[in-house]
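Work Package 4 report. The design task specified in the project plan requires that, given a folded chain encoded as structure tokens, an amino acid be chosen for each position. We show below one input record used in the internal validation round.
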């Protein structure tokens, strides 16, 4: 699912001072020492879920996919946390999650799409 989402074109690109954005706040609170993204690519911005590419905010300047989902939908994170990480599969790395509120959870993934294109450059 994440690979499909990351291959999408951005609907909107945000730049400038990005510290106000909830995805940035959640990522920085989750990843101790994480940098501010260069830009935010809005991949999906719905009422019940949203997906953003935080360009340059990840390890070694890679992009991070930040996905906000309803807490009830986040049970799928158990699959990432307890099953997939132990299997020899070629999947984007799951960095982890951060509870935003009782209703919402942020999930953070490696951006396999941008990493693949950076390797070709």
């Amino acid at each position: 699912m994440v690979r499909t989402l990351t291959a999408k074109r951005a609907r909107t690109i945000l730049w400038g001072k990005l510290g106000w954005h909830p995805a940035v706040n959640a990522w920085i609170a989750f990843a101790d020492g994480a940098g501010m993204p260069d830009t935010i690519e809005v991949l999906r911005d719905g009422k019940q879920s949203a997906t953003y590419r935080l360009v340059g905010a990840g390890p070694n300047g890679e992009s991070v996919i930040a996905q906000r989902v309803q807490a009830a939908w986040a049970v799928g994170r158990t699959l990432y946390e307890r099953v997939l990480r132990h299997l020899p599969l070629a999947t984007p790395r799951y960095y982890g999650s951060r509870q935003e509120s009782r209703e919402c959870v942020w999930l953070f993934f490696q951006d396999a799409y941008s990493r693949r294109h950076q390797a070709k450059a």
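Confidence is low (pLDDT under 50) at residues 1-6. Validation will be extended to a larger panel in the next phase.
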